[in-house]
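Supplementary Methods, section 5.1.

A reviewer requested that the exact input to the structure prediction be made available. We therefore reproduce it here, unchanged from the version used in the analyses.
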Amino acid sequence: MSSNDLDALLRVTSSTYRGETPPDIAFGTYDGAVGRLVLAVTGKGIAACSFEAENDVYELVSRHVGTFIGPDARRLDPVRRELDAYFSGRLRTFATPVDLALATPFARTVLQKTMAVPYGTTTTLERIGESIGRPRALRAIGNALASNPVCVIVPCHRVVREDGALGDYAGGQHAKQHLLNVERKASAPAGR
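The structure derived from this sequence is encoded token-by-token as follows.
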């Protein structure tokens, strides 16, 4: 699906429900400090906050979550405001519920453990593995983190290598370093 096709589809969906029933899945983008994030919000919460191309996220959401997808500022704008507050260092915990419908059962387990990593800190694949009782499943854990459909909000950027190196990240190492810097700066005691 081309970008023009996606734009046309979203316009049709938007005009279909104008003033009537909103789409089942709100779909849009957020342009922030680490680039463009593609957002999809279901009735359960945010299902995508992704660095992937809009078309790819749209197709994934339509295959696994639902097909009535369109813009819905009422559901997207609160997420955008939280992202603004996070990137400015004013938000440590997202209030937006997370819908891990796009993750496999194993990935859900890994991502739920990742959500428990405190703001401004990091952990390792090894510690995640130990916490889920799968200390040797490092490759599978890495794959689960790499396929995180809700980047930033589900903080897979807080998982680094055992040697302290950043490791891979869907948005690139620059984005991962930026996210960690935002959290470290906001967590630093006043006057530092």
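The first helix runs from residue 3 to 17. These observations are discussed further in the main text.
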